[in-house]
Amino acid sequence: MSVKLKTLAEEIGISPAELRKKITEFGFHIETKATTLADDIAELIKEELLKSEENVSEEKSKAELYEELIEKELDKEIIKKQRKQTAGKEKKDAAVQTEAQKIEEMPQTQKIIEIPNAISVKEFSEKSNISAAKIIGELMKNGILANINQMLDFETASIIASDLHIKVKRKHQRSAIVDLLEKNLTKLLEEDDAGVLERRPPIVSIMGHVDHGKTRLLDTIRKSNVIATEAGNITQHIGAYQVEKKGKKITFLDTPGHEAFTAMRARGAQATDIAVLVVAGDEGVKPQTIEALNHAREAKIPVIVAINKMDKEIASADKVKGELGEHGLQPEEWGGDTIMIPLSAQTGEGIDKLLESILLVAEMNELKANPNRLAVCTVIETHLSQNLGHTATVLVNTGTLKIMDNFVIGSTFGRIKTMEDWSGKRLRKAEPSTPVKISGLSAAPQVGDILQVVADEKTARSQAVQISTMLETLLREKRGLGVDEIMAKIISGEIKTIKIILKADTEGSLEAITMALAKLRDEKVAIKIIHAGVGNITESDVLMASASKGMIIGFQVLKNIQVQKLAERENVEILIYDIIYKLTENLKKILNGLLEPEIIEVEIGKAEVRKIFLTKRNEMIIGCSVTNGRVEDKARFTIFRGEKEIGKGDILTLKKVDATVKEVTEGQECGIRCRVDIPLQERDIFVISKKEKKIHSLG
Predict the structure, then answer these.
(1) In this structure, are 572 and 661 located in the same domain?
(2) Are residues 567 and 426 both part of a single domain?
(3) Are 270 and 291 found together in one domain?
């Protein structure tokens, strides 16, 4: 949508020429022959100019303030001195100009505002007392197309603030943002007023050995066949179901029992109120049984034991009770406090008693939540639907989840578009302890992620940007160190020990290298081998080096492509040699900060131009799709049109949605402000490259 310049000028009451001048003053670019203006920019210009007219009778213009202040101060000092001097009018004018400049700069440079990790243009305008139009104009000068609701990260806001002579400082918050990042469900569920809490259904986790009948038990409880979802004795996904007993609801969380899903089962235990530990009466306690029991104990939740398969002749409930007693679980009938129920998932015997026991334990624990607040949920399963895109099964921990609720989940955000219960029935709301499948997610969350409903889209977007920024910081902190970083930290005194993972082709080589490294001594830095082994370099070696901020030294060994990619992602240096003296020589140089890597240019990815947003003399703002590898901020690129190389360029700013980012990976879209030596066209291909420091270790 656009507005005619002539029409806008008439509404404001100025000539089209004056309007053009005002548009330029506000920082917006307008072509000489343009006759229209985008409606959002037109609205901002109109608002600012009409506001100026309304305030003219109440406030003096900046020019009048300058004149008044200059007259008061300079009449007494500067003008009197100027009359006595012979320099004349030129010197007086210079003094007036200097004094006026001081008056203009003084109040601006003293202005300090506190802003969070992300802030909208509107909020930034209100805090800084600078018009939104002026801020948007400054953003455009920096290659960012924005509107009044655009979210700015702290770094971008700092740049704009500097251009506007404003000082900013980051507002540090320990709010729900940190709790979401740390998945601190306990903190997010806290209530100040116990009076708002109401009873909620218990959330029950079914645990136990892989073939002791967990799925059959759930099948019997809810009278539906889910056995077909099993293949190779491993349940294919975590499901959540709700049943009723005596008018009261119970939510069951079906967590797989195979070793491959240990981490998922751990999350399941921590998200639930009661654990039902299934033990087959004919087989007794197995290692996975104890593993499941330990997860429940760690989560500090009560355990009810279901002794299954009692329809079999060789089944013995007493045998199971005795084995569990050895692991600290004593049945009630033996003087303990653990409910143990013999049952058969095959015949249905004992199922009613199990459900009654669950309701009894739930009542004793007084499970409550506040249904009248914004919902907090836990992700227990993720899906990809052909029609709905990314979906997730979530468990409502507190509050009531509703259709069209805005939410933040990890570093992404969205709005609830559809909601279904476990049977596929469409819902408009879900109360505490209800499992539902939702759509409206822009990306796939992880199992165990926390979904928090927020007031509006702006808040959701802001929190997602803040979490994304914090995640990037955490990732940087967790990553390893390259050789150049290690040497820099040695020189600055930050590193006193170089930690090394050493891999060699034989035990003899390993021993010889270990002895050679022991002879390398330096007054300031020591070498410590934290792991040594025979064989090729593995992903585990890379992760160990990353966690310890160390490096990997290999001798006549190999690294596969997966190991190399992981090392690049974790910023771990891998140096491989086939001559021992070369290995020790390079390490000696590292100790002294003297090893000089070669600077080479490497290809890191490809992108396709999808849309042209803005064209200036040597700069363009474009929309791209990353087709291979990754695109990094400040990287160089070669432009191809068809098969022909036609030019070069530099990435000045990289954006993903509304956030300024360091990189965008394959399959994602991004906005790029770039410097180019030839105008770009849609479908042009970028080959992205960057300069890297490379140590030729082999030799």
Answers:
(1) no
(2) no
(3) yes
Q: DSSP secondary-structure letter at 443?
A: S
Question: Residue 431's domain spans which residues?
Answer: 395-476
Q: Is 272:242 a contact under the CB 8 Å cutoff? A: no
Q: Are residues 98 and 84 in the same domain?
A: yes
Q: How far is CA 395 from CA 29, 218, 251, 420, 559, in A?
A: 50, 18, 9, 12, 43
Whole-prediction pTM: 0.48
How far apart are the C-alpha atoms of 484 and 468, rounded to whole Å?
27
Do 307 and 340 contact (CB within 8 A), yes or no?
yes
Q: How many CB atoms lie within 10 A of CB 103?
A: 15
More confident of the two residues 63 and 281: 281
Question: Strands 248-254 and 203-208: what pairing?
Answer: parallel
Query: What pLDDT does residue 509 have?
Result: 87
Tell me: do 406 and 322 sit in the same domain. no
Secondary structure of residue 406 in the 3-state scheme: strand
Residues 604 and 589 in one domain: no
| Residue 79 belongs to some domain of the structure | yes
CATH number at residue 680: 2.40.30.10
* Residue 66: band (very low, low, confident or very high) from pLDDT cuts 50, 70, 90: very low
- Is residue 16 within 8 Å of 30, Cβ to Cβ? no
Closest to 577 measured CA to CA, from 549, 556, 560, 603 = 556
Most confident of 266-280, 449-463, 596-610: 449-463
- List pLDDT tens digits, range 21-41: 777 766 566 777 777 777 667
Closest by Cα among 253, 250, 219, 245 to 352 = 245
Helix (H, G, I), strand (E, B) or coil at 51: helix
Contact 163, 138 (CB under 8 A): yes
Residue 499 CA, distance from chain mean position: 30
Better-predicted residue by pLDDT, 229 or 589: 589
Query: Rounded distance, CA 320 to CA 327, Å?
Result: 11
Task: State the Cα–Cα distance between residues 576 and 560, nearest whole angstrom.
Answer: 13
Any idea which of 110-119, 206-215, 453-462 has the lowest mean pLDDT? 110-119
Sign of CA dihedral 21, 25, 26, 27: positive
Average pLDDT (400-408) is 93
Measured CA to CA, the distance from residue 437 to residue 278 in angstroms comes to 27
What CA–CA distance (Å, rounded) separates 561 from 544? 18
Same domain, 586 and 606: no
**Which residues in 324-341 are b (16+ Cβ under 10 Å) and which e?**
beeeebebeeeeeebbbb
Residues contacting residue 101 through CB under 8 Å, at least 6 positions apart: none
